[in-house]
Amino acid sequence: IEKYLEEPHHIEFQVLADKYGNAVHLGERDCSIQRRHQKLVEEAPSPVLSNELREIIGNAAVSAIKAIGYEGAGTVEFLLDKNKNFYFIEMNTRIQVEHGVTEMVTNVDLVKEQIKLAEGAKLAYRQEDIKIEGHAIECRINAEDPSNEFAPSPGTIVNYLPPGGPGIRISSSCHTGCKILPQFDSLIALLICYGSTRQEAIARMKRSLGEFIIEGVKTTIPFHQLVLSKRQFLRGNVTTSFIENNKIVEELKGLKPKKEELTKEKKVIIVTTAVSQYLAKKQNNTNNKKANPWVMAARQEAMNEGLLEE
């Protein structure tokens, strides 16, 4: 008999441990927005955890890995019910796709630490050294058609222009001309946005999704834009039933396919980015990493509009 939890939150804790018995947690990630038990949006820290509850669950995760003598990087996953009771569900003994969210708020290179621990090094951190600052949100951009029940959308990317600017992190191997094959995972890119507050991270994500150009295949960008517009998400009260409760799939079906129209702002971003990249290559100046001021101005305007909507 398995205990049934109504609309729980999916909370996972990142952990590190060495062979000398030392272990720490690096806070949690909230992975509650899921479709068919597949995570689609992750954020850190979780908007539903208090500092006291974070310490209790974090200590439970550390105690668990110490009890089994675990070494390396891993993730201990829990479900949190509406009464703030938490239940262990599983542990992933590896680096996870969403590890970058934790890296953004802790400034700890998890992959580097995992390699060092595998080489037998002593853990470089104590629990009091781990500080969580700001807020980070990740959207998984997949080659799927959200208006057609997320049907796979293989094909060739004919135009690929990712967003950029402060607080933006892209993990992707895609490019213009890249082929998305039906035999493999449909993940195109991981888009992570960081802000000093959750509101700022959301505003930055909204701007970035609008700036992200992927043509040639259908993507889940419209899905993420719809999620970020929902009041329940903005309030931070998101459970594993979020998509069903908000009828996200039904609303996406109502979106009529239309040809991508470039707005004036997008055209300015595309042209200025291209010119900036060309001049940077021409001058071969690797020290100048500042973005074009016109691009920065357009991005700031887009973010301000997102903040005003709140």
Describe this structure in words.
It is a single chain. The protein is an alpha+beta fold and 310 residues long. It contains 10 helices and 14 strands. The protein has helices at 51-67, 99-106, 110-118, 198-211, 221-227, 231-235, 242-245, 248-253, 264-283, 293-309; strands at residues 9-17, 23-35, 38-44, 72-80, 86-92, 135-142, 144-145, 151-152, 155-156, 159-161, 168-172, 179-180, 187-195, 213-215. α4 (198-211) packs across α10 (293-309). It starts with 8 loop residues before the first strand and ends with a helix. The model is unreliable at 285-289 (pLDDT under 50). Helix content is 35%, strand content 26%. The strands form 4 sheets. An 8-stranded antiparallel beta sheet has the order 5-4-1-2-3-6-13-11. Strands 7-8 form a two-stranded antiparallel ribbon.
